[in-house]
Write a structure and sequence with these properties.
By secondary structure, the protein is α/β, with parallel strands linked by helices. It is built from seven helices and twelve strands.
């Protein structure tokens, strides 16, 4: 090899050395940061920005929200509202044939007057689902409800205090439990002949018909070492965009008849505090 050829090769290697090492170093830092979760918060915020950039969506009229607001609390004179008032609300709603009703109110203890009437109503109205908490601090469900009509309402918060994940199912000492949201969807879709079953591509997840819910695992998307193991079924939430994502009325609207019965008929009704 001639001296001139060798010199040319050395010059090319020098150029490659100068350009390659910084590139490899940068790639190593990015890869290391990704694997250790150093960029996790940035990836979460990027996800937030992406979801908020969606075009506002029209009202989903399959769901009616019944809010127990300050006016209802003042009218009742106490909070939580008495069991008797909740019974009256459920009876009016049932008269208009809702498909399923979710009572997102803790009723592990009596709120007199009307506790016996509420226990009877919850037991006999087989399209009503109550709530519990299965993660600390635990809150028991209404004692008169069977376990297949009890959904948990525990929320999973990320390290920055925001909710991006939904816990749909979890293993407890009393067996596997489903969330309120999942049970409401299950009841609604069952009437459309869309059953809930295990996934096909991932048997550990859930699916409705052919729609398989993507399950969050320990290292999923922007999550590194997420607490998604054990018997948990978690999925990313896609919050509906728009100032009025769902139709909503108040407790007083229902009690006074100030609503369209078609808002209730064959719909998902969710009773909750705003």
């Amino acid at each position: 090899m001639s001296f001139e050829t060798w010199s040319r090769i050395r010059r090319q290697l020098a150029v490659l050395h100068v350009g390659l090492l910084p590139g490899l170093l940068f790639l190593g830092l990015i890869t290391g940061g990704r694997l250790t979760g150093a960029f996790q918060l940035l990836e979460w915020r990027a996800l937030d920005a992406f979801l908020h950039s969606h075009t506002p969506e029209a009202i989903d009229d399959r769901i009616l929200l019944v809010g127990i607001d300050e006016q209802a609390i003042r009218a009742a004179g106490t909070y939580p509202i008495p069991d008797q008032q909740l019974v009256s609300l459920l009876q009016i709603l049932q008269n208009h044939q809702p498909r399923v009703i979710g009572v997102d109110l803790f009723r592990d203890l009596p709120v007199e007057p009307g506790h016996l009437e509420l226990a009877t109503a919850l037991r006999e109205m087989d399209n009503v689902i109550g709530i519990e908490r299965v993660l600390p601090p635990l809150v028991a469900p209404p004692p008169s409800l069977p376990t297949d009509r009890i959904g948990f309402v525990d929320a999973l918060l990320d390290e920055d205090g925001r909710q991006r994940r939904g816990l749909l199912g979890t293993q407890t000492d009393q067996g596997f439990r489903f969330s309120l949201a999942l049970l409401l969807a299950k009841a609604y879709l069952a009437a459309e002949d869309i059953p809930l079953s295990n996934g096909l591509q991932d048997p550990s997840t859930m699916r409705f018909g052919s729609a398989e819910l993507p399950r969050i695992r320990s290292n999923f998307g922007g999550y590194i070492g997420a607490n998604a193991g054990g018997g948990d079924m978690q999925t990313l939430l896609n919050f509906r965009q728009g100032s009025h994502a769902f139709r909503d009325v108040t407790l007083q609207d229902i009690l006074s008849g100030n609503f369209d019965p078609e808002w209730v008929r064959d719909r998902i009704i969710l009773i909750a505090t705003p």
